[in-house]
C-alpha cells in the first residue's frame, strides 16, 4: 500500500540556519505530494504541493521538488525563522479515493 | 470563507459518557474526512464521506465510534461509551472534487476522557 516515510525528529535549529526535512514515499501510479504544517494548538495547513514529477512547490520561502527517480519530496528553506517552529507532515494522495497518506510528522524548533 | 468549523474546541468528559464532535465543512466541498491525532499513533484517518455517503470507515477503531453526515454542511463523530484511550485531538477536513486534491483542516477538538 501507499506509505510516506519522514526523517526522525525533533529538529532544533538556530535562526537563519538552512533546513532540510527528508521525505520519501511508496505509491502505485503517480501520486500528488504535499507538505502540511501544524502550528501549536492549530489544525494542519497546506504549505505546498506538487502534482507531477519535477514539479517544484514553494510557499513562504519553503521549497520541495517532486523527484520520481528517488521517490522523494524533501522540504527545504534557506533561512529559518523562529515563527517556523511547528510540526511538518509529508503526505501523498494517489488514485481516485481522495485519501491522504501522512508521514509521522517532525517537530521543528527554531531558537533565536 | 470561514474555513472548516469544528465544535467544541475542547471537551473533557468522564469514562463511559457519550461524546459528540461536530464539523461544518467548507461550503461546496463534497468530501469530508475525520482524523484522530495522538502522540503514539500520529495522524490516523478514521472515516471519510463523499456527497454525504460514508466511503471508507476502515479506520474507525471499534463499534463505540460512529459518524454521520445528514447533509452537506454538517457531520458528527460520536463515541459511546468513551474511554480514556480515546483522548486525542480529532480533526475534520474537507475538499472539493474535480480539481485540486488539497484537504482543508479544521482547528480540531481536543478530547480528554478521565
Features:
heterodimer; A: 112 residues; mainly beta; 6-stranded mixed β-sheet; 4-stranded antiparallel β-sheet; 51% strand; B: 114 residues; 7-stranded mixed β-sheet; 11 strands; 0% helix; 54% strand
How is this structure best described in words?
- The complex is a heterodimer of chains A (about 110) and B (about 110).
- By secondary structure, chain A is an all-beta fold.
- Chain A contains no helices and twelve strands.
- Chain A has strands spanning about 5, 10-15, 20, 25, 30-40, 45-50, 55-60, 60-65, 75, 85-95, 100, 105-110.
- In chain A, the strands form three sheets. In chain A, strands 2, 5, 6, 10, 11 and 12 form a six-stranded mixed β-sheet that branches.
- In chain A, strand 5 and strand 6 form a beta hairpin.
- Chain A is globular and about 45 Å long.
- The termini of chain A are far apart.
- The relative contact order of chain A is 0.34.
- By secondary structure, chain B is mainly beta.
- Chain B has strands at about 5, 10-15, 20-25, 30-40, 40-50, 55, 65-70, 75-80, 90-95, 105, 110-114.
- In chain B, strands 2, 4, 5, 6, 9, 10 and 11 form a seven-stranded mixed β-sheet that branches. In chain B, strands 1-3-8-7 form a four-stranded antiparallel β-sheet, with no helix packed on it.
- The radius of gyration of chain B is 13 Å and the shape is globular.
- The mean pLDDT of chain B is about 95.
- Classes of the chains: A mainly beta (about 110), B mainly beta (about 110).
- The interface of A and B includes residues 32, 49, 89 and 105 of A.
Topology:
The complex is a heterodimer of chains A (112) and B (114).
Chain A: E1 3-6, E2 11-14, E3 19-21, E4 23-26, E5 32-38, E6 44-50, E7 56-59, E8 62-65, E9 75-77, E10 86-93, E11 100-102, E12 106-111
Chain B: E1 5-7, E2 10-13, E3 19-24, E4 31-38, E5 42-50, E6 53-56, E7 65-71, E8 74-79, E9 88-95, E10 104-105, E11 109-113
Parallel strand pairs in B: 2-11
Antiparallel strand pairs in B: 1-3, 3-8, 4-5, 4-9, 5-6, 7-8, 9-10, 9-11
Amino acid at each position: 500500500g501507499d506509505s510516506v516515510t519522514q526523517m526522525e525528529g525533533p529538529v532544533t535549529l538556530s535562526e537563519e540556519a538552512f533546513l532540510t526535512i527528508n521525505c520519501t514515499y511508496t505509491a502505485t501510479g503517480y501520486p500528488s505530494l504535499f507538505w502540511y504544517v501544524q502550528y501549536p494548538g492549530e489544525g494542519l495547513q497546506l504549505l505546498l504541493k506538487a502534482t507531477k514529477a519535477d514539479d517544484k512547490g514553494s510557499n513562504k520561502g519553503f521549497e520541495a521538488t517532486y523527484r520520481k527517480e528517488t521517490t522523494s519530496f524533501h522540504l527545504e528553506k534557506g533561512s529559518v525563522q523562529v515563527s517556523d517552529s511547528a510540526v511538518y507532515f509529508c503526505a501523498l494522495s494517489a488514485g481516485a479515493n481522495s485519501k491522504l497518506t501522512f508521514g509521522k510528522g517532525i517537530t521543528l524548533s527554531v531558537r533565536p | 470563507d470561514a474555513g472548516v468549523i469544528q465544535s467544541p474546541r475542547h471537551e473533557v468528559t468522564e469514562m463511559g459518557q457519550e461524546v459528540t464532535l461536530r464539523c461544518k465543512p467548507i461550503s461546496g466541498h463534497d468530501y469530508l474526512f475525520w482524523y484522530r491525532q495522538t502522540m503514539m499513533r500520529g495522524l490516523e484517518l478514521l472515516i471519510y464521506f463523499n456527497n454525504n455517503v460514508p466511503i471508507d470507515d476502515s479506520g474507525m477503531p471499534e463499534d463505540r465510534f460512529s459518524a454521520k453526515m445528514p447533509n452537506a454542511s454538517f457531520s458528527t463523530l460520536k463515541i459511546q461509551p468513551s474511554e480514556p484511550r480515546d483522548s486525542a485531538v480529532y480533526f475534520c477536513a474537507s475538499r472539493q472534487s474535480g480539481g485540486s486534491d488539497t484537504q482543508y483542516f479544521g482547528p480540531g477538538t481536543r478530547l480528554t476522557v478521565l
